[in-house]
From TrEMBL:
The GST C-terminal domain, residue ranges: 90-221
Full protein name: Thiol:disulfide oxidoreductase
Organism in which the protein naturally occurs: Pseudaquabacterium pictum
Family: Belongs to the GST superfamily.
GST N-terminal domain span: 1-87
InterPro entries, per database record: Glutathione-S-Trfase_C-like, Glutathione-S-Trfase_C_sf, Glutathione_S-Trfase, Glutathione_S-Trfase_N, GST_C, Thioredoxin-like_sf
SUPFAM superfamilies: GST C-terminal domain-like (SSF47616), Thioredoxin-like (SSF52833)
Length: 238
């Protein structure tokens, strides 16, 4: 059994995508980040960076005590290695998947996240910041589109050949493409890949689980939630 500490964000969706694909039994524990649940001591004991997602694996491969993990990329890699699924077994294929996983963690996620913040959630609309992150998101879409085009030319449908944790990491960050002011028609290989992932039964199940937890569409937070989400500094680390 996997305990998944989760909220309905792109990083949270990564893990439900994996668990639904793998058919692993898991229990969802909602962590409402707009209400400050991520600062509860029990959650911080698992995720000291006060961010979702986090998991506790009650049956780790070493047979030891339950294993807590935070950081979505680390969780995906751990689960893939645990099951020996959704990551290529050969050296070269594995490292293709890993480099695109890290590309998402270091590039697409942070840049699209800033795009969301300044374009949708910031109380003051700053044209320079919006333009900066919209353009950088578009550049990153272009990078992935080019790679997927090369994969398609080689007869491959996904980022690392077969469906893998690289796809699971990237897909949720492309779901909000309209909020990111991106037109998928401008990225035909990315658009075709997106539609294939969207149609997978496990993807449908994963996003249905999200609606069980939080059916509200993204909206600017109120002042209390804004302080929780965007007003933290070193004094809040406890």
């Amino acid at each position: 059994m996997i305990d998944l500490y989760y909220w309905t964000t792109p990083n949270g969706h990564k893990i439900t995508l994996f668990l639904e694909e793998a058919g692993l039994p898991y229990q969802l524990h909602p962590v409402n980040i707009g209400k400050g649940d991520q600062f509860q001591p029990d959650f911080l004991a698992i995720a000291p960076n006060n961010r979702i997602p986090a998991i506790v694996d009650h049956a780790p491969a070493d047979g030891g005590a339950p294993l807590p993990l935070f950081e979505s990329g680390a969780i995906l890699l751990y689960l893939a290695d645990k099951l020996q699924r959704f990551i290529p077994a050969d050296l070269r294929g594995r490292n293709v998947a890993l480099q695109w996983l890290f590309w998402q963690m270091g590039g697409l996620g942070p840049m699209a996240g800033q795009n969301h913040h300044f374009g949708t959630f910031a109380p003051e609309k700053i044209p320079y910041a919006i333009d900066r992150y919209v353009k950088e998101t578009g550049r990153l879409y272009g990078v992935l589109n080019k790679h997927l085009g090369q994969q398609a030319a080689a007869g491959k449908d996904c980022i690392a050949g077969d469906y893998s944790i690289a796809d699971m990491a990237c897909y949720p960050w492309v779901v909000p493409h309209e909020r990111q002011r991106q037109n998928l028609a401008d990225f035909p290989h990315l658009q075709a890949w997106f539609q294939r992932i969207q149609a997978r039964p496990a993807t449908v199940r994963a996003y249905a689980r999200a609606l069980e937890v939080n059916a509200a569409p993204p909206a600017p937070p109120d002042e209390a939630a804004r302080k929780i989400l965007y007003g933290q500094d070193q004094s809040t680390v406890r």
